[in-house]
Predict the 3D structure of the following.
Amino acid sequence: MIEGLYVPGLGDHQTRAEDTALRLWWRRGIYLRYAPVRWNEGNTFEEKLIKLTTHIDEIYEASGEVTLVGSSAGASAVLNAAAQQPEKIHRIVTICGKIHHPDTLPARDFEENPAFKQSLDMLPDSLDILSKTHAARTLCMTPYWDGRVPVTDATIDWAAQHRIKAAGHVLSIATAMTIGNRPACEFISTL
């Protein structure tokens, strides 16, 4: 069984149906722990990153490799965490991830979630590291259209790409985590 972490976006203080969605991944042999960053709590992103890398260490000790899946704001968190410990990361999957152009987000997002801004500020250096180590091990899943995170902001030019058969931010994430999880699971399962 492949093990890893799933990091959701800004609404991670309200658990919705993530536990049910993650069970669908388990059926495909991928056990992802739900690992919310708690974006709206007062800790800095550095403190949140330490917590994520601790989870990575635990999984790595148990299974020898770790897969990271992040949706929306969670994509920046998993990319930054992977850059901290690239030797421990098997695969990375981003789903509708806000990766580029943080200036296009409303100021309110950063006022309510200051750690998200810190994560995005750290991201260019992390992408540089990962472009050298994980180009063939990263998948960006994007919808046909997303009014919250434009598709161009959710892609990484050196990563594999997959189009989610949906439109809209929340619906596309829900699709990729449930009935549309097969491409991600197959990518993760590839050696």
Notes: The domain at 2-189 is CATH 3.40.50.1820 (Rossmann fold). The chain has a mean pLDDT of 95. The radius of gyration is 15 Å. The first strand starts at residue 2 and ends at 7.
